[in-house]
Amino acid sequence: MGKVKDGVIGGFSGKVGPVVGCKGKNGYYVRSLPTGGNPSRSDEQRSARSKFGVAIRLAKMLTPFLRVGYREFAAVRSPFNVAVSCILGAAVVAGEDGPVIDFDRVLVSHGGLTSAEGATAEVADDKVSFFWTDNSDKGNAAGTDVVLLLVYNKELGQPVYDVNAAHRQDGKATLVLPDGWKAESLAVYLGFSSADGKMTANSVCLWNG
Question: Which domain of life is it from (predicted)?
Answer without folding.
Answer: Bacteria
